[in-house]
TrEMBL record:
Family annotation (Gene3D superfamilies): 3.40.50.20, ATP-grasp fold, A domain, ATP-grasp fold, B domain
EC nos: 6.3.2.4
ATP-grasp domain mapped to chain residues: 124-324
Cofactor: Mg(2+); Mn(2+)
Protein name according to UniProt: D-alanine--D-alanine ligase
Classification via PROSITE patterns: ATP_GRASP, DALA_DALA_LIGASE_1, DALA_DALA_LIGASE_2
Gene (name only): ddl
Alphabetized SUPFAM superfamilies for the sequence: Glutathione synthetase ATP-binding domain-like, PreATP-grasp domain
Alphabetical GO biological process terms: cell wall organization; peptidoglycan biosynthetic process; regulation of cell shape
Length: 327
């Protein structure tokens, strides 16, 4: 008998647009011989399933079920592809934990921590061979904090919302005159902002997942952007960024990255598929951790999809491994 899988998408933030694109790919790629898939759209005060006839069927939040005609549908598990809140920040995970439904992504605590860039960096800081750029975590946009940044950090700087995604609200600051506007932009997206020193290096993004009980590190993708950094436009507008999979790394670099990534996965108690962004510093080749994404995009051109294909694996089989790892 096929398992019933809820594919959750939508969301409460600007990332919902990307979430819907990811869900469309998962929905058509997932192995229908093994699973019956129901796409559940989650918006503030509006959780529903859209039937084939276009009828909006509400989700019963008591047990996360839907009723189609006389049939009540309950789910064996959840394929979570909801970027941002509540799918990536732990809120949805906590709800599923309470009602006892397994899901493909990190648990409530790991999701909440990894959504916060500053807290994540504090946890992975002691991993051997991993480096972190000097930074400040700000909780208010004040004159005092502006001065702190100037006193304690060196230009150029990256300014980013601490809990955001898709590089929304991010800026690169090359002069102190640009700092107030950059902070204002970031604080418009979040109550916490991370200010960190810029690391000059080659940028990479690498997938890692647990399937069949084993952690697999995928080939890294090198990000070569025509923009100053990998911002929203670089990520989602065709032609702005060149993505090279596998990225140009020598044998020593590949071996070192493959030692570091599983340690990050285990230290943060991750589940399912994650994507880690990092720099290899130009002068030294040192590994500098940027951030971890616990609900990575699954569009046709997404980095994880590229990396799965690079190891000769079908994306459909990858999804099957993520689902089966839940049970």
């Amino acid at each position: 008998m096929k398992r019933k899988i809820a594919l959750v998408t939508g969301g409460y933030t600007g990332e919902s647009v990307i979430s819907l694109k990811s869900a469309a790919v998962v929905e058509k790629t997932i192995d229908r011989n093994l699973y019956d898939v129901y796409k559940i759209l989650i918006y503030p005060g509006d959780w529903h399933f859209l039937s084939a006839s276009g009828e909006k069927i509400p989700v019963d939040l008591n047990d996360f079920s839907i009723t189609i005609g006389d049939d009540k549908i309950t789910f064996d598990g959840v394929f979570n592809i909801l970027h941002g809140s509540p799918g990536e920040d732990g809120k949805l995970a906590g709800y599923f934990d309470m009602i006892g439904i397994p899901y493909t992504t990190c648990d409530q605590l790991s999701s909440a921590i990894t959504m916060n860039k500053g807290y994540t960096k504090a946890i992975v800081d002691d991993i051997e061979e991993l480096n972190i750029a000097k930074s400040l975590q700000l909780f208010e946009n004040s004159v005092k904090n502006l001065q702190r940044v100037e006193d304690e950090l060196t230009l150029p700087l990256f300014i980013k919302p601490n809990n955001g995604g898709s590089s929304i609200g991010m800026s690169k600051v090359k002069s102190w005159e640009e700092l107030p506007e950059a902070l204002e932009k970031a604080f418009a997206e979040d109550k916490q902002v991370l200010v960190e020193e810029f690391i000059s290096g080659r940028e990479f993004s690498i997938g890692c997942y647990k399937g069949k009980g084993e952690i697999t590190v995928l080939p890294a993708t090198e990000i070569v952007s025509s923009k100053e950094f990998f911002d929203f436009e670089s990520k989602y507008v065709p032609g702005v960024t060149e993505e090279i999979t596998p990225g140009r790394q020598n044998e020593e670099e590949v071996a070192r990255v493959n030692r570091i990534i599983p340690k990050i996965y285990e230290k943060l108690n991750c589940k399912g598929a994650i994507r880690v962004d990092y720099f290899l510093q130009h002068e030294t080749g040192k590994f500098y951790f940027i951030e971890v994404n616990t609900v990575p995009g699954q569009t046709e051109t997404s980095l994880i999809s590229q990396q799965i294909r690079a190891i000769g694996m079908e994306v459909r089989d990858f999804y099957t491994e993520l689902i089966e790892e839940m049970f």
